[in-house]
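User: My advisor, Dr. K., asked me to get a structural model of this assembly before our group meeting. I'm new to this, so sorry if the format is off. These are the inputs:
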Amino acid sequence: MADANLLESLYVFQGIPVRWLDELLRLSPVRAWPRGTTLFEERESADVAVLLVSGELFATVGTGQWVRNVGTVRPGEVVGEQALFARKGRRNASVVASMDSVGLLLTEDVLVEGANNPAIVALERQLLGTMTRRIRRADLEIKRAWREQADTTGPQQATGFRESVRRIFGTWK
Amino acid sequence: MNRTALKELANRLLQTHRVPGVGTGDVVDLLIEGEDLVFGDNTAICVEGAPSEELYFLTAGRVSVTTDDERGTPRQLSQLEAPAMFGHMGLIDGSRRTATVRAAGEAQVIILNRRLFDTLIGQPSRIGLALRHLVLSSLSRQLTAGNTRIRELIGVDDEVDLISLPPTAIQPLGANESRRLYALPTVPVTEAQVDQITGILGGWAVDAALSDTILDSAYDDDDLER
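Assistant: The format is fine. Below is the predicted structure of the whole assembly, which you can bring to the meeting.
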């Protein structure tokens, strides 16, 4: 199956037998997003993540002249995973296809019905690593911003630290 | 710990973690795999800088979480109350402990050692699913709570229409200024505030930070025989 061949090429699924990739595709058929398609809108309710199989996605915040690119999603990466494991909330960024892209929608149902599927286990293990790295990086950046302001005091320190943090993290919902 | 006590603990964990596809019995079966230990007051459960070899479920009591500053002076990041889970990030990325955890009064824990963690985390079984989803839920909470505290610290609130700011110096609001610009707060930032974010991101303060977000999770009221 051509779609299973696409999945086989992703690092996360190396060594996973094709029959399990076929099973994953049965639970979540491949979706295509032409360049410019908005997959998620900032502030909308979140209940699905996306595994990007090919193409590229941009995560952006803001609208009009205030739009900023806050991240790029590449094949093999998952975006929006907090929708699956965090309290139901709203998207903290919009996600747009920067080129013609293909991927899988990951919902609670896919994870639960595919709980015995090694492909989904592999995906979840990758998520564990990705999220841990993101947390470590955020912590390092906060501490670095703090150290950079260590010699300043008062409003200058407050503004300088906050400005550093704002530049690093942008804004959230 | 007997299954009745573990069931209660499992239910409380599922109330505070969004864990798709995991029932009370699955969490009980996971916890039974671990080792029960009791730590006396002020006993170190794990030490900053040590290799990460265990995941801990705090089943009773309280622990104090500290980290040493550059001068070697301990600073408190958090106190955790049961039920809580900690030590998972080091098992995932192999990092050494980023904080020291000591019992504050007597503390009871269930420990999953590295060998058991590595075995279960990749298992396509209900126990493996329970472990993966509990940890993923905890990591999601750490990210969400950390983001919330960072937003509060830099003074971003939802009422301000500035989803994105141009990467230039922040300008003070004037009478004719667009609401798209705003003044950063000038209240001094304290080291304690930075520690709080570190504690949340590190998973040391998640329960305290999200004590008001108990979920109405649909966990199974499983038969004890499961």
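One thing worth pointing out at the meeting: Chain A has six helices and eight strands.

User: Perfect, thanks a lot.
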